[in-house]
Amino acid sequence: MTASARHSASTTRTETTKRRVFPIEEVLRWAIRDELPKRRLDPSITQAPSLPSVHPMWGNGLFTRVDNWSREPGMPLALGECHPDAEVIEAEIRNLDAEALDLAPYQIGHGLGPQCEVERISRLVRRDVIAWLITYAKKGGRPDLGEHVMCEPALSANGKVTVWRTVSTLCGTDLHGKPLFITSDKVAVSKGDARDTGLFCKLHWTRNADDVAEDRARYAVWHAALAHLTERLSGLSSVEVRAPIAPATPWISQPTPPAALQRLIPANDTDLPPARHPAQRPRPRPASAVRHIDPATYPLVA
After folding, report:
1. Which of 129, 139, 151, 165 has its CA at 20 to 30 Å from residue 182's CA atom?
2. Is the dihedral of CA 129, 133, 139, 142 positive or negative?
3. What is the number of alpha carbons within 13 Å of residue 71 lying toward its C-beta?
4. For the segment 226-254, what is each residue's pLDDT rounded down to a tens digit?
């Protein structure tokens, strides 16, 4: 082996050992929050044509003078230059095609019923995928899924729960002479008592199925974008990108693992102090039975 070959092999081993292994969430956080603000003239990665759903703070640019304050005169080179891998990550985020993300494996409508408009909600949420990637890369965490479907009793004008009763009204008869009734809900004037099972209150949905689907779709788009970037960023020189650590479908409950039953027989644990029992008084001895001797059968008695 020549000297140049040995030098090339040692250089390859050195460069290989320098690659750090991080999940995609940490890689984006390192690039967007720590490296890209080091550039003096920092072109934003959100300079694509603005959409109605994009907030003005994103449309005006990602990295403003507040983000790269340390590059202003006085500390011009305090943090060094931007890492080349960070610029590669920026280019991949800028070229991300939101429409190409496959959301079918995420089962956004799981348990929400057929009336939930999953396709429409997913189409609206896709447009903000770059903004959500940048947001959670800078502040950490992941999109909030919120709560499940929630409702509360509908209130009347006086702020109290309105109680209703289903009333049947006779409206005529059919061809066979049987009476026909029309049922309608009316406010119950007499509230009745605990035996009246016909009273009910109407519900007001504070969080419906579409709200839950919107949070799920935002999470699914964010996670699908992370998985896509993981494949695209496999050739970085300093970082080895791994799959996202966030679960793909946290709204689908996994089967509960079998729990071990507690042992009913107490274990002989030597670390436990000896059990202390209360002292008990000795039981009194029972009196002996009285012996009756017949003089006729006793030889000494005469």
Report:
1. 151
2. positive
3. 18
4. 999 999 998 898 889 999 999 999 998 75
The mean of the pLDDT values for the chain is 77
Quote the tokens at residue 294: 């017949």
Query: Rounded to an integer, what distance in angstroms lies between the CA atom of residue 25 and that of residue 22?
Result: 8
Q: First vs last Cα of the chain: how many Å apart?
A: 134
- Of 135, 129, 145, 140, the closest CA to residue 226 belongs to 129
Q: Among positive and negative, which fits the CA dihedral 165, 166, 170, 171?
A: positive
Q: 141 — alpha (psi -120 to 50), left (phi > 0) or beta? A: left
pLDDT for 147 equals 74
* Token pair belonging to 88: 């590669």
Does the global pTM surpass 0.70?
no
Three-state helix/strand/coil letters over 180-195: EEEEEEEECCCCCCCC
User: How crowded is residue 68: how many other Cβ atoms within 10 Å of its Cβ?
Assistant: 17
The 10s digit of each residue's pLDDT in 51-105 is 445 555 555 544 444 444 444 443 345 667 888 999 999 999 999 999 999 999 9
Measured CA to CA, the distance from residue 75 to residue 217 in angstroms comes to 43
Q: How many whole angstroms separate alpha carbon 229 and alpha carbon 243?
A: 9
